Amino acid sequence: MSIQHSSLFSFPSLVSIALTASGGLVLSACGGASSGISESGNAGASSAGASGSAGNGVIAGGGSSGATSNLGGSGGAGGAPNSGSCNQPTITTATPCNGQYPATSIVALRKAKAAGCFELSHVGLVARTDSPSEPRMYVQDAGGNDTSAILAKCTATATHACAPAVKAKIPLLFDTPTDGAQLSIRGYYQVGAVTGFEEFYVEDIIDECKTVPRPAPISLTVADLTRDARTPAKWFRRAMVNIPAQDPLVVYDFSPPEMLLGLPQCPDYAGFAMISRSAGSAVPAACAGNMNPPSVAAADPMEILVGRQFFNQFLFGADCACAGTTNLKIVKPTGAVVGSVLGYLILEQKKASTTAYQVFEPAADQAFPIK
What we know:
Among the domains are: 103-213, CATH 2.40.50.140; 218-362, no CATH class. The model is unreliable at 1-83 (pLDDT under 50). A 5-stranded mixed beta barrel has the order 2-3-4-6-5. The chain has a 4-stranded mixed beta sheet with strand order 7-8-15-16. Strands 11-10-9-14 form a 4-stranded antiparallel beta sheet, with no helix packed on it. It starts with 102 loop residues before the first strand and ends in a 9-residue tail after the last strand. It has helices at 106-112, 164-169, 222-225, and strands at residues 103-104, 116-128, 136-141, 149-153, 179-191, 198-213, 218-220, 238-243, 249-253, 271-276, 304-307, 316-317, 329-330, 336-337, 339-349, 356-362. The chain is mainly beta.
């Protein structure tokens, strides 16, 4: 079984995160030279098409490179100048929505739960995932609270497809540890009547060449993150969770079926599972060479599925097929995490199924340090 919406990886060419710098070489919120800031603080690998190579925390790109940071950036390759115009649509040809995009806020859209074509007006960019083939953006109403964020996906294979010119805009959007681009995003809102699964398919992006403050993280509990919990008001928001030292999260399953991509080679899994130590679960089996161990039978519903959308920033994983071939850090069966962790809680759904499950997407290694 494979994840319905998970073209998250593009190996072996791993694209390092690159954001517009908040000082120094920055020219404007729309266009100009950009510098690379990595959320993870790790040395960034150069992206496909990027000039040169990167190392020692410097990210290669078409523009100027910058030092890394651990302050909380987002995914996507950057560095090339932005050739777009402020407040201008990218697409002038017909789209599946026929150019009809009623303007709405995210909170109004999600509360109405009516699928259709819309424009998410004047929203702020919070984070971008690392996939160069199918990038996703976490966006939120400026100053918004519960139910005010959503995940917007740029995919070339959907009915409401994202054109190459639109996709090319995403890595160039203004994005720093403190501020993100103000955008209007046009496309199709999908919502599941049975599962509650929500996603926004991008048809066009209008860069308003303004910035909005990056929202402070909200607080979630460990229970909020579990596979079968449902906290839709908190989905897609930048979130902090405190994991007590007396009850750490421990590695639970290298091979949760929900995270299986169904590929015979790297990458084969989009994540792994952890659980509170107090659940009393056995230490899981480890990799057998490049083979994942069997999934845990009758998995505990209190497990927490840990995703790798930010795979250049969050390097921990349990995809044995990738061991030694990428910068993936295979977790230890005895691995554990305590303290404050940072990431994004989402709902995923299996293909051709009404089975859905929550996934927590850590923002970076430092934001979810597994020891």
